[in-house]
Amino acid sequence: MVRLDRCKDRFLGFFVYSTVRSATIKSHRVGIAYRLAQFILLIYIIGWELIYKKGYQAFDNVSSSVTTKVKGQGFVPINSSIDKSMDKKDPSYYQKLFKFDTNKTYRLMDTADYVVPPNEYNSIFIMSNFIETTQTQGRCDEEVTKPKAKCLIDEDCLILGDATNSWNGIPTGRCINSSTTPGVNVCEVKAWCPTEHEDSRNEDHLIRNVLNYTIFIKNDVEFKRFNKKQRNILPFITNKYISRCNYHRTVDPYCPVFQVDYIMTIAEPDDEQKYRMLYKVV
User: Based on the number of CB atoms within 10 Å of its own CB, is 63 exposed (0-12), middle (13-18) or buried (19 or more)?
Assistant: First the structure.
């Protein structure tokens, strides 16, 4: 019987309506304080949370990976030297140095030869000029441009301090004649000999066809929180398309293959300066 009465009370209570009693306070001080609190709360929500902190937006850290691949064939002349009759003041002087001459014999250089190192952080190094030195371990004269390498007597090669940190080898304490600069004495070192000299660049070391190299760039971006993935390889791009296209901002803006010549032209429109950059390995 008690259980039946409880069920009856709950059923009838379902149809009962109740409200909170409110009181009206006629006070200017209380009213001003109440409205001021509302105004401050409104400013905080709109100004701070929504506008400044952009609370209506959701954020996520991006996960990205970039893959690059350089392709192209470089050519280096064999047993050839610079034509001394060419005028260095000629605006096309450096361009002529990289000109492919069918009368010369060339050796082929591929990606493994001119991309040094193979992996590099946030950059790509493409070799366009190099110093080739056949070396063996022994004793030879230090490069004249090294700090404190020049000497007059043997004692000058004994107390050198930290100057030898940039040297090519270990000083032996002897002062000998320089093999590259007549009339100048330098300290002898035990190292890989002969040492490399920056002024030994010549036409033998310039790599032709550098401007025709291509750089393939693939960029994958993911927002894990929103399960959203994007990449610069669009759905319509196929391997056949990639093998034939070259990026151009107006003609082909979606191609992920960039020609070195196009990149350098944007960076330096002047042809003379562009070839100077290749010659100086910048």
Answer: exposed
